[in-house]
Amino acid sequence: MADFGIDVDPKEVGLDARRLQRIDTHFRRYVDDGRLAGWQVMVSRRGKVAHLTSYGLADKEAGRPVETNTLWRIYSMTKPLTSVAAMMLWEEGAFELTDPVSRWLPEFSQPRVYVGGPATKPATVPATEPIRVWHLLTHTAGLTYGFLRTHVTDEIYRVRGFDIGAPEGFDLAACVRGWAELPLAFQPGAEWNYSVATDVLGRLVEVISGQSLDAFFAERILGPLGMTETTFGCPTDKLHRLAALYRMGPGLTEPVRSDGLGRSPMPPPWLSGGGGLVSTTRDYTRFTWMLLNGGELDGTRLLSPRTLSYMTRNHLPGGVDLTVYGRPLFAETRYDGVGFGLGFAVVIDPVAYRTLTSVGEYHWGGMASTAFWVDPAEELTVVFMTQLLPSSTYPLRPQLRQLVYQSLTD
Fold first, then answer.
1. 70-75-81 Cα angle (round to 5)
2. What is the reported pLDDT for 4?
3. Is the pTM above the cut of 0.85?
4. pLDDT band at residue 259, thresholds of 50, 70 and 90?
5. Which residues, 6 or more positions from 403, have their beta carbon under 8 angstroms from its beta carbon?
């Protein structure tokens, strides 16, 4: 396995170098016309980097360019690591996927479900079944995000201080207790809804393992994989390498600096297993290589191949896609032809997905427009980093897939 940097002639791994250049040509336009400050993309096949490009600025105001060691807020690309952490404990027999989470988090012992009324006075009924571990892994627990702004329960979260962040002074345990007091958007298992479920899963990892989430990550995942730059928040001595955060909004013609959301205090106020990590392209690439290699990298095994295969199958009831089982709202993937596994979106129909990808390709992205995917059929992994909120501003992800797959020649 390569450490980082282009280490193979693309044609040796079935990629056309000239066609790969189309990726750079296309995305340079985003920087040249002001839509993005800068970006970095890595394409690897069979565990070898065939294409690595940086373009633009990590910090426009400071004139600082994107470098190979630039640090990026990966937000929801934290979720797959938390899911891997949970399944490592599952492999040790620590829990069953059908176990109620209230066994470890008693605050969820009597969940209630929203059925009507305003956010200030919601009507609720008892949940008909407990929230189970697999509900957290599949985003079917009935939890939500305050920033979604599509349902009354989202507003209830915001009223309680849970918008993009959490109330001041809350650690992860306090956040989980707070969410447990709020009504669920639906009965557990009834629908798919992008949510704080992975943050609750992170707390479950803490309670079961007896370690804080950052300690578990460092000891069991990041250290063994050589992901030396990945942390919750950005250390003070590395702030000069952290990419600035930009945001698009109504009435804006180009992104503006968003320092309010861009601060990464160390240590962070709460360890968000759903969105708290800062990482580099090199580090996250190593994580994708572990996934592609069936749970092992450079002699270090985190998961068995069978566990990883199980995680990356579609777990939605009846094998349906997210258009059938999910709510039509923002998430870090399109819905057509895409199911959901244990921590990953999974492509089940590339034709419906309108993308040149493979059945079984799995992926996720981050709120600041970062993205990755793993395609076992093509032995391909791709990592894309930039820092633009929200991730739905431009169709970066489908365009990147289109340009990567057209470069495959075998």
1. 95
2. 63
3. yes
4. confident
5. 22, 23, 26
384 membership: H or E segment, kind and range: strand 380-385
Per-residue DSSP letter, 249: -
pLDDT tens digits, residue range 184-212? 999 999 999 999 999 999 999 999 999 99
Q: How far is CA 319 from the centre of its chain?
A: 22
Radius of gyration of the chain (CA): 20
The span from the first CA to the last CA of the chain, in angstroms, equals: 21
- Number of helices and strands in the chain (H, E): 14, 18
Over residues 274-303, the pLDDT tens digits come to 999 999 999 999 999 999 999 999 999 999
Domain architecture of the chain: domains with CATH: 10-80+230-405 (3.40.710.10), 84-209 (3.40.710.10)
Q: How confident is the model at residue 238 (pLDDT cuts 50, 70, 90)?
A: very high
Report helix, strand or coil for 232.
strand
Strand, helix or coil at 65?
Answer: strand
Question: How many CB atoms sit inside 10 A of residue 376's CB?
Answer: 19
Q: How far apart are CA 409 and CA 285, in angstroms?
A: 22
Hey, what are 395's tokens? 């169709």
Distance, CA of 64 to chain centre: 26
- From CA 353, how far away is CA 334, in angstroms rounded? 8
* Number of neighbouring beta carbons within 10 Å of residue 239: 12
Helices 396-405 and 17-32, packing angle to 10 deg: 160
Q: Give the pLDDT confidence of 27-60 residue by residue, as tens digits.
A: 999 999 999 999 999 999 999 999 999 999 999 9
Per the CB < 8 A criterion, the answer to whether 405 and 357 are in contact is: yes
Find, among 198, 217, 209, 210, the residue nearest to 133 by Cα: 198
Could you identify the residue written with the tokens 């894309």?
Answer: 384
pLDDT of 363 reads 97
Residue 209 CB contacts under 8 Å (≥ 6 apart), including other chains: 89, 94, 216
**Half-sphere exposure of residue 362: CA atoms within 13 angstroms, side-chain side:** 24
Type of residue found at 229: E
Query: CA 272, CA 175: separation in Å to the nearest integer?
Result: 10
- Is residue 381 within a helix (H) or strand (E), and if so which, with residue range? strand 380-385
